[in-house]
Amino acid sequence: MAEAQVPKDDQKIKDALAEKALGNDAYQKKEFDKAIEHYDKAMELNPDEMSFLTNRSAVKFEMNDLDGAIADCEEAIKQNKERGLHTDFKIIARAHARIGNAYVKKGELSNAIGAYENSLLEAHDDKVYTSLRETKKRKVEEEERAYMDPEKSQDERKAGNEFFKIGKYPEAIQKYTEAIRRNPDDPAPYSNRAAAYMKLGEFPFALRDCEKCLELDPKYTKAYSRKGSIHFFMKEYHKSLEAYKTALEMDPNNRDLRMDYQRVMATIQQTANSDEVDEEQVKKAMADPEIQKILSDPGVTQVLKEMSEKPEYAQKALEDPVMADKIKKLIAAGVVRVASR
């Protein structure tokens, strides 16, 4: 009895799949030229199967033939659409993703982002989503680096200073912000912008800029001075005192700094001796981690207890420099009062 004959087209499909398997094996062994030969034969046998094209694109990608990899993926996408081949959407999604990967390798990030987005429209994939997010982030970073220009930064800063002089503080802030974008490693525009924010009463923003300025240049005296003023206006006198103290250590002959330091000391003394309690100041101080740490010290707790029972004990407690520093900080923060009864 004669064997049943396999239809010619079915045989070609089987042969094509066999060539694909050989190509996959060669790919795993990194025998890339051989893999391409097998995928080419598979495509000749069955030109309707787009996975042969996308597999070949993977080989070209590994060979760093990025344009070739992109061309194969684009051809697979094009043929599937124009010929209505109904290729598995996951294969088409992978083709778009590989185009994205190739464009990333070429440094063409906008094209890569478009390819990743097209891939996710076909099928969601966590890896592709992560690649899209990272590529977008990298693109922003590269654009920011390309935007940097120290000379233009100085021009923007000078323009900000002119606006500041005539009281146009929002306009000054815009210019200082532009100066920072042009040169984010320069501490000066942060200090300038802090001054402008202070004029508008935006103390948290001003404080943030002072801290960034000092992060870039820990010896930027003017930033410490402004920080001292900000904390003073926010009634955080213990922090204000520390800022002015640090500034004076750097510039001990600065008369303005010394006057500001004395102003804070006088305010602390006045507040400590007052019968009125500033609830807002105390609430803010109690939320300060440094103050919380001091208050949790058993030694401090004992001293405060004895001071409340015997006010004359305060002088004795302050003879210990470590304890004195803690108690003074609590007094400056408005947590401890020394008003006479």
TrEMBL record:
Where in or outside the cell it occurs: the entry states: Cytoplasm
Which InterPro entries does the entry link to?
STI1/HOP_DP, STI1_HS-bd, TPR-like_helical_dom_sf, TPR_rpt
Recorded hits in Pfam families, A to Z, give: STI1-HOP_DP, TPR_1, TPR_11, TPR_7
Q: Which GO terms describe its molecular function?
A: Hsp90 protein binding
The organism named in the record is Rhodosorus marinus
- Stored SUPFAM superfamilies: TPR-like (SSF48452)
**Which key words are in the record?**
Cytoplasm, Repeat, TPR repeat
Sequence ranges assigned to domain STI1 in this UniProt record: 288-327
TPR repeats (start-end): 16-49, 93-126, 153-186, 187-220, 221-254
> What PROSITE patterns does the database record attribute to this sequence?
TPR, TPR_REGION
Gene Ontology CC terms: cytoplasm
The protein, known as: STI1 domain-containing protein
Q: Which PANTHER family match?
A: STRESS-INDUCED-PHOSPHOPROTEIN 1 (PTHR22904:SF523), TPR REPEAT CONTAINING PROTEIN (PTHR22904)
